[in-house]
Amino acid sequence: MEKERNILIDLIKGLAILLVVLGHAVQFNFPRTFDNQPLFRIIYSFHMPLFMLTAGYVAAISFSGSGRQLLAKVRTLLLPFFSWFIFSYFFYWAIHYNTQPYLPDFIKKLTALYNNPTRGLWFLWVLFINYLILYGVQKISSKYATSVLLIVYLVVSTLSAYFTPRAGLNFVGFYLLFFTVGYALKRYRLDQTKLFRYAGLASLLIFPALVWNWHRSDTIYLNDVIAGSFQPALLVGFIYNLAVSAAGIMTAFTLCSFLIKLPAYIQKLLLYPSRISLEIYATHFYFISLIPLIAYMEINARIALTFLGILALTILAQWLIHRNKYTAFLFYGKMNKQKAAVV
Fold it and tell me: Going by fewer Cβ within 10 Å, which terminus of the chain is more open, N or C?
């Protein structure tokens, strides 16, 4: 049963990273109106919380709080975060060389990244901070780690409410909750209860009913509620956003639970994106610039072709990067050269 649950989480991770690519395919095909596209709104209502929840689930299995494990997270999360930032610095300068022949101010760019990690691979940064918090929490009380994580979530949200967020503090305040829920799901085996399965089935109806009114620009975090002195409208909005994300996550769990019954060769294909989720997340942005090449196609076909094209080129690029142990280490934090097959 445990093996089956691990396969389920891997399938969910694979689904989450595919949704990241598909969401960006929609976003960059509708550069001005993407927030109003139904598919974009559905994906963005839950896909990154889903990603963070699975990370917390895996942390409950593999992260016991040792210093060596934390250093491994520095290598696999922080190193790629900064390596890709430096690569992007030169990459986009080269693209715009004709109009901007001089390199931008690097310190200014780095300061902007610190103030707003969304200028880079923000998910890696936020995930590392969550692991850092978990490391500290486990040193304080491993037995009550979940409770302490929730207290830290409240503290970080409060700080974000009264101080200008820096270093992604506001994102940490939001995603730490999902990381904690994923951690608790595995630690207390909540995902194996009947109540969890029934909630998953109910979400197939609840999520479509809730998500139609969700809008990214209207997202309300706990720090917004605190800063607004718990005004009823803000509190209701916060609860609604959590409900949409939770229903979307439960829908993903339920749908993927059906996939674990498929033949092994189909499972292997579906699990491949999960194995290289970091590589896809970090690399796929650089192929989005190809979208204008298919600008005259019908929009749905363009989105589909954009998604498949970006995914295929990303898989090829990460395979090439893995061919050299130095680039694999620098961009993905991998210690050994991987012989990943292009599928």
Answer: N
pTM (two decimals): 0.92
pLDDT tens-digit readout, 61-80: 999 989 999 999 999 999 99
Domain boundaries in the chain?
Answer: 2-332
Residue type, 214: W
